[in-house]
Amino acid sequence: MNSYSCLDDIGVERVFEEIKQENAKECDWTTYSNLAVAYVKSGHNEKAVLALKKLEEEMGPRNRGAYHYLISLHSRMSNLGEVYRIWNSLKHFLETTNTSYLVMLQSLSKLNDIDGLKKCYEEWKSNCSTYDMRLANNVIVHGSKCLSLEYFVEERDVGGAEEFYKFLKLNCLNSDVYSSLLRTYVAANKTADDMILRIKEDELK
């Protein structure tokens, strides 16, 4: 069944029916996750949603891997409400790990949910027992256009750029951030008299 989903072949339905007829007990949550992946890849989102509902019925409330699949697949279908519903369910039944936060951050990035991304990142920082740089890097590397530094330049959004600068200053500040911040001021026809001092204070060249 995995091979069908990898090939975007809707014939996965036939394989699924064969599995159900030959041994229904083999249909666990992973079976429905493979089915959902095939539907998403082939653009059959309504069928994918039905498969994900069956996945939830089969997975049980404490299956971390299944939660991760659900969050990722719903984000691929732009189902932001479902992403948050499943995330809240995961947090209710299980301790949130670095991996869980990483899955959620990547999903929010795909969905351009800037406020949600920042809130989730801040939540992780306040609760984490071990610091994982992958999560900090994900905010930059996997960020959507709206989170990219160029967005603020294009929008001439000095306020937004300054807020994002403060956000990045905690872990990921580099010279590129200041370059984009300066260009945002120029695009907005505004001045930043303290910029040189700020660069020196942040020890950037």
Give the mean pLDDT.
80
| Secondary-structure class | mainly alpha
Strand content: under 5%
Number of helix segments?
13
**Which stretches are low in confidence, meaning pLDDT under 50 for 5 or more residues running?**
none
Helix content: over 70%
Q: Give the termini separation.
A: 54 Å
Main sheet characteristics:
none
Shape: elongated
For the secondary structure, the number of strands is 0
**Run of helices and strands:** HHHHHHHHHHHHH
- Rg over alpha carbons: 21 Å
What this model shows, in words?
The chain has helices at residues 2-6, 12-22, 29-41, 45-59, 64-76, 80-93, 98-110, 114-127, 133-141, 149-155, 158-169, 175-187, 195-201. With 205 residues, the chain is an all-alpha fold. The longest helix has 15 residues, at 45-59.
